[in-house]
Design goal:
Shape: globular
InterPro entries: Bact_HTH_transcr_reg (IPR050679), Tscrpt_reg_HTH_GntR (IPR000524), WH-like_DNA-bd_sf (IPR036388), WH_DNA-bd_sf (IPR036390)
Number of domains: 2
Radius of gyration: 19 Å
Pfam families: GntR
Strand order of the largest sheet: 6-4-3-7-8-11
Oligomer: single chain
Domain HTH gntR-type: 11-80
Keywords: DNA-binding, Transcription, Transcription regulation
Organism: Streptomyces sp. SID12501
Length: 292
């Protein structure tokens, strides 16, 4: 299976390989406890990158807890797309839904309204790729209209994280963050506007707002009635800089594997309803203050 590079925008090869492998673990192609079916050399050929890039990507996935090295047998998958605890669940049971399933349920509505607050929008870009593929393939009915409001930290902000441990590396880590965000937003725009251009969706509006805040959590507000929320977990780790082919140590957010919770407006659950409405009010207040 070769990755579709049409939406990758010439970004970091390392980040692209990480995203592709995480996507395959999330969609079940690489099941829990299975071994990655491709060798380093095969992965390099599959992704059209060097073996060194593949090794760095595998190390990142290992550091983030997705895989572990099995001596003599390769890499074993330690986790896949987690079920998200939900206020819909009764009697302490899990909802049984993952983030892609919750997003697909939101996109089953004829009019889709998403409000998202994120550090880079990298995970959202992955979700929009899944949604786009499902609509194009007929697995998901296309909505009539999609509106996305995306709130991100300002490029000029002196962010709390990611932040280089060595002050001399401060600017290169900031630039890596800017490029990752730019590439992720570009992927989202390409995927959703392509649905409109090819006649699947009648209307697509994508609005972005930059705020002078380092987000402490990621937030997806779905059609005004659901919220998916989770804190960013921080970790000091090596990050790879594609431009200089080097690594620097930085305090970074592990957003792609962080915990999340799901809340639904429900007359029978006033606490969950209040959470969704309060988060929507918080989002709207920042949007009204900083959107231009």
């Amino acid at each position: 299976m070769s990755v579709d590079r049409s939406d990758l925008g010439g970004g970091s090869k390392h980040d692209r390989v990480v995203s592709v492998l995480v996507g395959r673990m999330r969609n079940g192609e690489y099941p829990l406890n299975s071994l990655l079916p491709l060798s380093e050399e095969q992965l390099a050929q599959d992704q059209d990158v060097s073996r060194d890039t593949v090794r760095r990507a595998l190390k990142t996935l290992k550091d983030d807890g997705w895989i572990e090295s099995r001596q003599g047998s390769g890499w074993r998958v330690l986790k896949v797309e987690p079920e998200i605890p939900s206020s819909e669940a009764k009697g302490g049971q899990k909802s049984g839904l993952t983030l892609p399933q919750l997003m697909k349920r939101a996109f089953a509505k004829p009019v889709v309204v998403l409000d998202v607050s994120s550090l880079t929008s990298e995970s959202l870009a992955d979700q929009m790729s899944i949604i786009s593929d499902d609509i194009r393939g007929g697995a998901l009915s296309a909505p009539e209209r999609i509106t996305l409001r995306l709130m991100l930290p300002s490029d000029e902000l002196d962010m709390a994280y990611p932040r280089a441990v060595d002050p001399q590396d401060y600017e290169v880590v900031r630039e890596r963050q800017r490029l990752l965000t730019k590439r992720s937003v570009g992927r989202i725009r390409e995927k959703l506007h392509s649905l409109k251009a090819h006649g699947y969706v009648g209307s697509v509006d994508i609005l972005t707002c930059r705020v002078p805040l380092t987000p402490t959590s990621k937030l997806y507000l779905l059609n005004g009635t659901e919220a998916v929320h989770g804190p960013y977990l921080l970790k000091t780790r090596s990050v790879y800089l594609e431009e200089t082919e080097s690594e620097v140590v930085a305090l970074d957010a592990v957003g792609i594997a962080g915990p999340m919770e799901h809340f639904v407006v429900d007359d029978g659950n006033p606490q969950a309803s209040a959470f969704v409405r309060n988060q929507q009010g918080w989002f709207n207040s920042l949007w009204e203050q900083y959107a231009t």
